[in-house]
């Protein structure tokens, strides 16, 4: 307002640019007090940000009636000044009333302030930690936004009043923060210094001040933190209270009680920040407090600070805890951890270096839980080695560093944070897996059904080369192993190997080569591990490849291995560690079936006979052409020829070694009539005839459901494979075995011309039994076709074990044949003859008629 009393309150649109304007006094008086333009804003119209236009609008609304009454009358110069003075007086009273009403109507002011006040934090940093709290630097933008006020009257009065006041200055105050839903407990107090802000609508005031923050009820802070960590906190209401002394200019507004309630829920609630473990390293370190070495874990963790907050966290101590057997039991301490100083920058990646030391393993940590084979440590390690995330619990230690204020220690020691601990998969950690000196054992016939002894068993030496995770930089020694393993062939399961008892082992660390990580070589000898065949089809394919394929095959092993490991902390048991590998298996034969067995039968003994059967025992020598050994408690195999079962063979308690195997006792039966029927009887007769005649014959060996005790499916599966071998040669007692020598039961013959008789040198392979010849109907030939003579003799005579001579048998000469002429020419000398005929043989109760065809028999001719 001008100092000139004659100046109008509000001029026309052509206002003077200076108080020294050259316009005449008459011009001033002729200028209207208020413009009558229809565009002049009304009081109830929207108010813009120009304070002078707002005041003009308010004044115009108040004085419009005065202008309407006096604007058209023609008065003198002195007459016009009195209405102007009256208008100014009225306007002043109105303005004072508005100001007084705005600042002394608490309800309106409070409503406007609550709705229009906007504070946008731009930065929060911790200047320093004190013994009682934190000195924080707070930076924010302050403004009043009238558009947020819903009530028009409150908005207009508030805008007008704040435009008049322009600035408000607060005195130093304390802001107390409460949690209404937690018993209205005090969680903290902030000391706020004097602050001056522009309260006009839309004007922004930058705030930058230091505030001392002090924690309140630590138990309440702990309860809220635990509810948040446990996921029970879906929203939280915070109430701030303060008594603030205010003034505007030189006018004091007294002490105002301010209360503000905020609700945080949904996305407004901060979440536990996601983190990445960028480094994890385990190593041995000396622990002076216990006078020996312990295990240290160094880790680097990165996480993102998404808030405009800057501060430095001093070094802190933490306890690393694991879950007890029962969820209700207290956590078990695993290690002590320490963090280095952490610098947190606004909206940036934060790096945290953590060092934890395990000096010993407590008894509750390694003791098996009730009703379980696993301890809390087993459960933790089990998840880790399977690549599954587990959970450890981090709690602030009650012992603090010298530079850490006690109030921080009290807070962090009362809060336990669950931290996901990522596992480390050990898949493909096995670089090489080999099984040597393999030994197989068939089921024990005296074993209890269902027991391990009633299953096939495998023994051998296992050598495993396993890669060590790069994080493991400490000495370990594997002392024992046990496992359950699935055996697969071409991706399909064959069976299970169950090593239920601990097997001794030793190991050595191998230095890294070619840039790869370090490895560990584990040696273990397994004994009598039961093999359970679960898929007969797959097992049949494996046997077919091993027996007839002639080349190695590869079995896949998927195992869960329990490992006893000696470390600086003592002996640890890592249970159910997954291990995958392959086992090359050498063939049982090299493609020729079992022809290289080269069996030889000796010391044949007849045990019992019937009219159609014989039970006998023999010592068998053979060659094992494979790299495998075996123990056979009991096995029974059918003996076949030309598709018919002629008998069976049984072996008990046989140890099969590499190379030559001698003196194996085998019991066998010959009973084609019972086992194969009339057809088998004919085939058996034919086989015996061919065998004694020196033909190359073969026997087929085939398992059946009862071949292996308690394993009918295994015997049935093996029965798919018919193993053929040449019929073993039976040699007379005292003869040197010759695998190339054909059997010949007639060693020589002596013909007597004058008496027309012949006697034969016979060879019996039986050492303990006598054979009886019941009948002979045979013809001797020269040069295979020329008959010499015929013998038809039906008086029984015996053939004792070994070499013997038959009685003189009558010969009916073929006088008109060339063969007889050759006999006479050979008088006093020798010649080679052939013989063909039928012979009825009796051995105790067993009787059979067979044919015989011999060639190259050395014959002597006598008078």
From TrEMBL:
Residues 1-10 have a biased composition (Polar residues). Residues 1-50 are annotated as: Disordered. The keyword Transmembrane helix applies. The chain crosses the membrane at residues 82-105. Residues 739-851 form the Tag1-like fifth Ig-like domain. Residues 599-713 form the Tag1-like fourth Ig-like domain. Signal peptide: none annotated. It comes from Amylocarpus encephaloides. The keyword Transmembrane applies. GO terms for cellular component: fungal-type vacuole membrane. Keywords: Membrane, Transmembrane, Transmembrane helix. InterPro entries: Ig_Tag1-like_4th, Ig_Tag1-like_5th, Tag1, Tag1_C. Residues 472-586 form the Tag1 C-terminal domain. This is Pre-rRNA processing protein.
